[in-house]
Amino acid sequence: MAALAVVLGLVLLTITRAGYVYWIHRKSVRRVARPSSTSTCAVSVFLGSGGHTTEALQLVAGLDGSRYNIRAFIFSAGDSLSVQRASSLSGSATQLIEIPRARRVHQPLSTVPRTFFLSLFGTIRLVVPRAGQTPLGDILLMNGPGTCVVLCACVWIARFVGWPTPRMVYVESFARVTSLSLSGKILSPFVDRFIVQWPQLASRSRFAEHRGWLI
């Protein structure tokens, strides 16, 4: 009975801590201030392969280079095309980081939990603080696909234990005109900014923001 009480107590503490961290997150999102025109940000960008990589690189191309420096391009294992394209844009200070893929195309859903957790364990290193700072910089930019969920989960684990974390910005794919992607539906409550590019999608999630076409 004593052991059961300890387990239940730990579960209750975990749930309470998770709820508190999420409440603080939503509160800070509402109150976040616009950065000054002279502030600079370090940005990490997830390249989701194929069209997702194209859109992510187009988003990067639209950033003001004097304010936003790209710290890292993150890509899934086996995505050689994204590596080639990122390499052509990378500066000397930009890292190319490979992480395990959470789900491959046409992978049976029954095997996804295993590959998801393998990806999670292989990605958690990216949020372990170095010299008191997050390796991912100030902003983590994502636009799909499913491995974004792993990255978001790692950031939330870091927030749960009190480590510094980047602001997560998820930009829904331009191809999503009438409905949100599965990744978008999952992540919209958990990222710091959830941006859609078509006005009709703003009503699909109470967390969505429409900023016009970004690519």
Describe this structure in words.
It is a single-pass membrane protein. One of its GO terms (biological process) is dolichol-linked oligosaccharide biosynthetic process. The chain is 40% helix and 17% strand. It has a domain of 127 residues: Nucleotide-binding domain of ferredoxin-NADP reductase (FNR) module (Rossmann fold), CATH 3.40.50.80. It has 215 residues and is an alpha/beta fold. Strands 3-2-1-4-5-6-7 form a 7-stranded parallel sheet, sandwiched between helices. The chain contains 6 helices and 7 strands; from the N terminus they run αβαβαβαβαβαββ.
List the helices and strands and how they pair.
Blueprint: H1 2-31, E1 41-47, H2 50-61, E2 68-76, H3 80-89, E3 95-99, H4 112-123, E4 139-142, H5 147-161, E5 167-171, H6 182-187, E6 193-196, E7 208-210
Parallel strand pairs: 1-2, 1-4, 2-3, 4-5, 5-6, 6-7
Helix pairs in contact: 4-5
List keywords for this structure.
215 residues, 6 helices, 17% strand
**What is the helix fraction of residues, given as a range?**
25-40%
- The CATH topology name of the domain at 40-166 reads Rossmann fold
- CATH architectural arrangement of the domain at 40-166: 3-Layer(aba) Sandwich
* Number of E strands: 7
CATH superfamily grouping of the domain at 40-166: Nucleotide-binding domain of ferredoxin-NADP reductase (FNR) module
Determine the N-to-C terminus distance.
59 Å
Number of helices: 6
Estimate the mean pLDDT confidence.
88
Overall form? globular
Rg on CA atoms, Å:
18 Å
Q: Which CATH first-tier class of the domain at 40-166 would you pick?
A: Alpha Beta
Q: Give me the strand/helix succession.
A: HEHEHEHEHEHEE
| Unreliable residue stretches | none
Largest sheet: 7 strands, parallel
Strand line-up across the major sheet: 3-2-1-4-5-6-7
- Kindly estimate the percentage of residues that lie in beta strands according to DSSP: 15-25%
